[in-house]
Amino acid sequence: MARPRTFNESEVLERAVALFRSRGFERASMPELTAHLGICRQSLYNAFGDKRGLYLAALDRYGAREIDTKLSQLSTAPSPLQGVQTLVASWADYGAQCPSEGCLTITAIVDSTDDEEARQIVEGHVDRLEKGIRTALKKAQSAGELTPTAQPTRLARSLVTTCYGVGVLAKLPGSTQRVKAAVAEALDRLNSFQP
Amino acid sequence: MARPRTFNESEVLERAVALFRSRGFERASMPELTAHLGICRQSLYNAFGDKRGLYLAALDRYGAREIDTKLSQLSTAPSPLQGVQTLVASWADYGAQCPSEGCLTITAIVDSTDDEEARQIVEGHVDRLEKGIRTALKKAQSAGELTPTAQPTRLARSLVTTCYGVGVLAKLPGSTQRVKAAVAEALDRLNSFQP
DNA sequence: TCTGTTTCAGAACGCACGTTCTAGATCGAC
DNA sequence: GTCGATCTAGAACGTGCGTTCTGAAACAGA
């Protein structure tokens, strides 16, 4: 009876993510969105309610995928500490990224301060990243990769802060060296707790 | 012949800074601006050209004042190292700030990616902060407050990144502990280079 | 084939925006 | 007092926005 959806909602969402990343929520207009998403206005409204609904869905999709990617570096590493090292080192890649591919989470933090729902979505992603790092650091400590004097919780919190600092400054073309330095310092700090 | 300006342009600019901080560039509408600035539309256009002109002026004013404040902590301290320590420690205050008082520099970095002029303004401020810290660290090293193994340039770059990471996460209500941890870690890292 | 939903293209809606214009009041300089 | 620029208040401009509506085409299930 009912005709199933013909367009791929997941692909549409990914394209929305891309546009929101490069244009932001306000500047990404509905005409632009429909053009890049490959579906007409009406289908978009049927699927996501309105522009903000699409944005929240894109925000959640982006954050989940981003954090998944980061955390997978922890689980696939030979050891917990090496996992964190790999993860932190990978942040240096942000320095070489195209400015139009900035972190959507950071964008949302900055200009969705008055959108409680958006805030909760991004806060969830940040928390998840921090938790993943903290867990890995605790494992590393238990495994003897870190000295007992290391403070996994504090370290994890600090590393997350560095991560988002890198995410912001990477948007400034002249910050390549800053990003590299921040990553190098974070790694040195981490390694200073090795026995 | 000519009648001098009656309103205080400096005060107007400060009020513009406050509104742009809490609302962002796009959301701060002209009616809102004229209401909060205490001058009428026409005067605003005469003085600043247009909305973007006012924004750039506010951005520059904010950044200059912000960096001035930070750097003054370096110059008034008993020693170069204590100056940096005081400066870094003060970033923890961001954690307790009202969300509507976020860093305008960060806002500009995030949603003025395609405004070359705005980008240059904020890049100048970031550079100035980094340079101030680097100079202080070099002085500290020369004075024997830091070991010869410390790398002032790299440290300064890393600290600036931490500063802006703190600035972003401070906008998330649940980040008080993260901000504190980042500051504490940065201080520990700094102090680890003391002879 | 029929039926009912989805998709499409595009027109149309109301609204808020940044900006410009008009006209009168204000006030320092001459 | 006169001149000329500045400030005020408010109407009005055009534009682009998000959204809704219209009607026809596409297409899966009965």
Brief rundown of the structure:
Chains A, B: This is HTH-type transcriptional repressor ComR. Chains A, B: One of its GO terms (molecular function) is DNA binding. Helix content of chain A is 72%, strand content 0%.
Look at the structure and give the mean pLDDT of chain A. Answer: 93
Outline the low-pLDDT stretches of chain A. Answer: none
| Beta strands of chain A, count | 0
Structural Rg of chain A? 19 Å
Name given to the CATH architecture of the domain at 59-191 in chain A: Orthogonal Bundle
Q: How many strands, which pairing sense, and closed or not: the largest β-sheet of chain A?
A: none
- Reading the helices and strands of chain A in chain order gives HHHHHHHHH
Shape of chain A: elongated
What is the topology?
Two copies of one chain form a homodimer.
Chain A: H1 9-27, H2 30-37, H3 41-48, H4 51-75, H5 80-90, H6 104-111, H7 116-142, H8 152-169, H9 176-191
Helix pairs in contact in A: 1-2, 1-4, 3-4, 4-5, 4-7, 5-7, 6-7, 7-8, 8-9
The structure holds a DNA duplex (30 and 30 nucleotides).
Mind explaining what this structure looks like?
The structure is a homodimer of 195-residue chains. Chain A is built from nine helices and no strands. The termini of chain A are far apart. Helix content of chain A is 72%, strand content 0%. Chain A is mainly α and 195 residues long. The first copy, chain A, has a domain of 133 residues: Tetracycline Repressor, domain 2 (Orthogonal Bundle), CATH 1.10.357. At the A-B interface, helix 1, helix 6, helix 7, helix 8 and helix 9 of A face helix 1, helix 6, helix 7, helix 8 and helix 9 of B. Chain A binds a DNA duplex (30 and 30 nucleotides) through helix 3. Chains A, B: InterPro entries: Homeodomain-like_sf (IPR009057), HTH_TetR (IPR001647), Tet_transcr_reg_TetR-rel_C_sf (IPR036271), TetR_C (IPR011075). Chains A, B: Pfam families: TetR_C_13, TetR_N. Chains A, B: This is HTH-type transcriptional repressor ComR. Chains A, B: Keywords: DNA-binding, Transcription, Transcription regulation.
